[in-house]
From TrEMBL:
One of its GO terms (molecular function) is glycosyltransferase activity. This is Glycosyltransferase subfamily 4-like N-terminal domain-containing protein. InterPro entries: Glyco_trans_4-like_N (IPR028098). Residues 27-173 form the Glycosyltransferase subfamily 4-like N-terminal domain. Keywords: Glycosyltransferase, Transferase. SUPFAM superfamilies: UDP-Glycosyltransferase/glycogen phosphorylase (SSF53756). It comes from the Bacteria. Belongs to the glycosyltransferase group 1 family. Glycosyltransferase 4 subfamily. It holds the Pfam family Glyco_trans_4_4.
Length: 392
């Protein structure tokens, strides 16, 4: 037992690394760290978050919502940004901090797990989705991610999956257990007064919010919408710094009814877009439980989603599902033909959102951290060898 846990038997030192950190500005990992980390801090735990700064001219706060923040740089290259930052994080952590538990986000960071284990720090790895299936990676990237998954299985003391489909994958492919801990869904209660700034009104537009990556199917949604007889505009929120060709494809598919807003970082405005949309179209296909989808249902949006198990797990009967541009076109037309039905589906969405509670998510993280702190690094873990259930 560490000195800290002897003095404070109920207080853990928890390090979180492998992401852009806090304040949360980007994706699911960052949202999870902020929501779970601040709740753990409020319960008396000491939470340390390694963070990157998108604006180096304005240093990050040293304390944020009860969490200690360590700001470190990263190489500005897609394939190395995360790994370079995690390498610096581990280098900073080992000689200065000996947490009771480390939570590493993203299986891509698994090459650094042996160093943490050598320091006898129990490690949980949040494996995220099936990264090797993402269209942005070439053969080398896909091979790396498959190797990283195997390392995560072998060197983690626990694996965290945010969706049943991810848990099933690790059980079938590696015969490895996971702790199933989904993200939370915020209960968004906002007005729609700021929509007028964009020339929009509640119930008077369709919405997409996604990074421009091929597995998020923004191009399919835009294509389907353009094929429809829609009278209401399609508002597209999102961009991608490394996807110029894909962005150009989306721009070429769009017609005058499509409004490409780029990134929207104003959370209040984004919430009003979710809440005010006639339908939110969700095209994510490989990333497990998606925070954008959870935020949409928390805002009471009717959702039409790409037909994969992750999205069905979240939406259940509240959602409608599509696979092709023709499917999207039919759903767009039916939505405009019966707006009252979309409002009723929005209420069903709120019911689904109640199943994803951040306080309960934090309970699970806290229980996992206590378990790992008590048992220490495990000597026996699955080998990391694949069964071949999911060939590359």
């Amino acid at each position: 037992m560490t000195a800290s846990s002897t003095a404070w038997p109920d207080r853990l030192r928890i390090a979180m690394l492998g992401t852009r950190g806090v304040p949360a500005r980007y994706g699911g990992f960052e949202t999870a760290i902020e929501e779970v980390g601040r709740r753990l801090a409020a319960r008396g735990h000491r939470v340390l978050v390694y963070s990157r700064n998108p604006d180096p001219d304005t240093p990050l706060p040293r304390m944020y919502r009860g969490m200690r923040v360590v700001e470190l740089p990263a190489l500005k290259k897609r394939s190395l940004e995360t790994l370079s930052h995690t390498a610096l994080s581990v280098r900073h952590l080992l000689p200065r901090v000996h947490p009771d538990v480390a939570i590493v986000f993203n299986a891509a960071n698994s090459p650094f797990l042996p160093a943490l284990r050598a320091a006898r720090i129990p490690v949980a790895t949040h494996v995220d989705g099936l990264e090797w299936r993402r269209g942005k990676w070439g053969p080398t990237g896909r091979r790396y991610y498959r190797a990283a998954e195997a390392l995560a299985v072998r060197y983690s003391d626990a694996l965290i999956a945010d969706a049943q489909g991810i848990a099933d994958y690790y059980a079938e492919e590696f015969e490895a257990d996971t702790d199933l801990i989904a993200y939370g869904a915020p209960q968004v209660a906002v007005g729609t007064d700021r929509l007028a700034d964009l020339g929009l009104q509640a119930g008077g537009f369709h919405l997409v919010v996604a990074r421009f990556e091929i597995e998020n199917h923004v191009d399919v949604i835009v294509d389907g919408y353009v094929r429809s007889g829609a009278r209401l505009p399609l508002v597209v929120v999102g961009s991608a710094p490394y996807a110029n060709e894909y962005t150009a494809r989306i721009e070429q598919l769009a017609d005058s009814r499509v409004r490409l807003l780029g990134g929207v970082w104003d959370q209040e405005l984004l919430d009003q877009l979710y809440a005010g949309a006639l339908v939110y179209y969700h095209g994510h296909s490989v990333g497990g439980t998606n925070p954008s989808l959870l935020r949409a249902i928390g805002a009471g949006a009717a959702v039409d989603a790409f037909d994969v198990s992750f999205n069905r797990e979240v939406l259940g009967d509240a959602g409608r599902y599509w696979a092709t541009a023709a499917d999207v076109a039919a759903l767009v037309d039916s939505a405009e033909a019966d707006p009252d039905a979309q409002a009723r589906r929005g209420e069903l969405s709120r019911g689904r959102a109640a199943l994803y509670d951040w306080d309960q998510v934090t309970d699970r993280y806290e229980a996992l951290c206590r378990r790992l702190a008590e048992q220490g690094p495990r000597h026996r873990r699955p080998s990391g060898r694949r069964t071949g259930a999911f060939p590359a």
